[in-house]
UniProtKB/TrEMBL annotation:
It comes from the Eukaryota. Residues 100-388 form the Tryptophan synthase beta chain-like PALP domain. This is L-serine deaminase. It comes from Lutzomyia longipalpis (Sand fly). Residues 29-40 have a biased composition (Low complexity). Pfam families: PALP. Keywords: Lyase, Pyridoxal phosphate. PANTHER family: ACT DOMAIN-CONTAINING PROTEIN (PTHR48078:SF19), THREONINE DEHYDRATASE, MITOCHONDRIAL-RELATED (PTHR48078). The keyword Acetylation does not apply. Residues 23-46 are annotated as: Disordered. The keyword Lyase applies.
Length: 493
């Protein structure tokens, strides 16, 4: 029988006098439900909400197979379709105050890509958070807002990765037992990271929906609070703190471009930014492989949207959050859906031009600019959220190649040359003379009609789009049979 370990409850004693200043329940900082107003005092006094930042001991309390059985009617009381909760600006300022000591205020710097894109581009570098994404903000705030009893019992969530990592890291630092259920498709690197941050990790569920049901069922049986990674009001408020920092760091932007998964990030950021700078446009971006928010807008509310495999795995949420949708929609100016090639190209450009390693979700904003969807902001001040950097190394390698191909810098072609001695070397000389670098070359004779010919397949790298065009021209003029297999996207430089 498979067993899974649950962290034991091990909290370090709350310091004497912690509750003595009578600030219980001060409403301005209570967040959404206003019931846990003492939390800020913990954070203020100890920087750690009253708990020493230490790792819980090894697990003692195994989860048995029967714990994993799904309870069909289990529901999350914080995310109810019929009664969506909207967050307010005050929720976000409360969150900012509470999480300040445990979260990085990440840089928001003018980008080298400004000239290339024709915009005053600023990059908010959230991938520099300790666990590699902005998800820590919401996770820490939601944890700090738990009651003492809830902290003792522990929390549970289901996530493909970034929320799980943020929650695992901060729960462990705060001495709160944490369990995360990750679907079997979750990247191995993210599973290992959660374990290293001290979480009890259960890898189970064919999909996110199944993992979520399992997590909520365990939560119900074990009396653990389920923390939805995009729709819990405290999560949204925590993510909104990015918006406050953006305005403080770059003044009033003309637009803020926000990648959208379940919608918590855009809901929080839009609430913060619009309250201070109502004229700033809020733009949401999704991959065309998982356009759940766009479908929800068309439908008039969250609706199940089957997702396909995407480079932007952080955005692959089949149904957007009810609270997130209700909060974000009135503040949203535009939604953009981008093709994967643009995301791959954006990842490549961010590495080459900015030395930033970001995951697909984090590059979606730049992809929206490259795809021409935001041309109305040429000459304007635009902020892009580089919200995550947790990319699998093999996927990263593939992205770079795809980006090169999309830009027309990696080409694949097939050319028929004479089979007499020197035919192939002549082709190679031609490529060398053009400054084209051969990555791969292969030739075959057996299936060629003309017995005196050979077919040569080449994968090669050029310096840019114009260089590729020059290669095409030279080859088609010289050889009667040349076929380029990929049609690269024309990228304005
Ligand atoms: C890197 C990254 N960017 C953006 C998002 C989207 O956030 P939300 O689900 O709150 O819309 C996620 C969600 O996991 C993410 O991991």
């Amino acid at each position: 029988m498979a067993t899974y370990m649950v962290q034991p409850v091990k909290l370090v004693d709350v310091k004497a006098g912690q509750f003595s200043n009578g600030l219980n329940g001060h409403s301005a900082t209570n967040g959404v439900n206003g019931t846990h107003g003492t939390n800020g005092i913990h954070e203020m006094k100890n920087g750690l909400n009253g708990y020493a930042e230490e790792k819980p001991e090894q697990a003692t309390n195994p989860v048995e197979d029967e714990d994993l059985e799904i309870i069909e009617d289990v529901a999350d009381p914080h995310c109810v379709a019929e009664n969506p909760v909207k967050i307010s600006f005050q929720d976000i300022t409360s969150a900012a105050f509470l999480i300040k000591s445990g979260i990085q205020c990440t840089p928001c710097q003018r980008s080298h890509l400004s000239d290339m894109t024709g915009m005053e581009l600023y990059l908010k570098k959230e991938f520099l958070q300790f666990t590699g994404s902005f998800k820590e903000r919401g996770a820490r705030y939601a944890l700090l807002m738990l009651s003492e009893e809830e902290k003792r019992q522990g929390v549970i969530s289901a996530s493909l990765g970034n929320h799980a990592q943020g929650l695992s890291y901060h729960a462990t630092r705060l001495g709160i037992p944490v369990t995360v259920v990750m679907p079997i498709a979750a990247p191995i690197m993210k599973i290992q990271k959660c374990r290293s941050y001290g979480a009890n990790v259960i890898v189970k569920g064919e999909s996110m929906s199944e993992a979520k049901k399992i997590a909520m069922s365990i939560g119900k049986r074990r009396n653990l609070v389920y923390i939805n990674g995009y729709d819990h009001p405290h999560i949204m408020a925590g993510q909104g703190t990015i918006g406050l920092e953006i305005v403080e760091q770059m003044g009033m932007p003309d637009a803020v471009v926000v990648p959208v998964g379940g919608g918590g990030l855009i809901a929080g950021v839009a609430t913060a930014v619009k309250a201070i700078s109502p004229q700033t446009k809020i733009i949401g971006v999704e991959s065309d492989k998982c356009p759940s928010f766009t479908r929800a807008l068309e439908h008039g509310g969250p609706i199940l949207t089957p997702n396909m495999a995407t480079l932007a795995d952080g955005l692959a949420v089949p149904t957007v959050g009810y609270n997130a949708f209700a909060t974000a929609v009135p503040l949203l100016d535009k939604m953009v859906v981008v093709r994967e090639e643009w995301i791959a190209l954006a990842i490549l450009r961010l590495v080459e031009q900015e030395k930033c390693v970001v995951e697909g979700a984090g590059a979606a904003g730049l992809a929206a600019i490259f795809s021409g969807h935001l041309n109305e902001f040429k000459g304007k001040k635009v902020c892009l959220l580089l919200c995550g950097g947790n990319i699998d190394t093999t996927i990263f390698g593939r992205c770079l190649e795809r980006g090169l191909a999309a830009e027309g810098r990696l080409l694949r072609f097939c050319v028929t040359v004479s089979d007499r001695p020197g035919g192939i070397s002549e082709l190679c000389r031609e490529l060398a003379a053009l400054g084209v670098s051969i990555k791969d070359i292969m030739h075959e004779r057996a299936w060629i009609r003309d017995i005196f010919s050979v077919e040569v397949k080449v994968v090669c790298e050029t310096s840019d789009w114009a260089h590729s065009e020059q290669l095409r021209k030279v080859l088609t003029e010289k050889y009667s049979h040349v076929v380029f297999n990929d049609v690269p996207m024309a990228i304005a430089n």
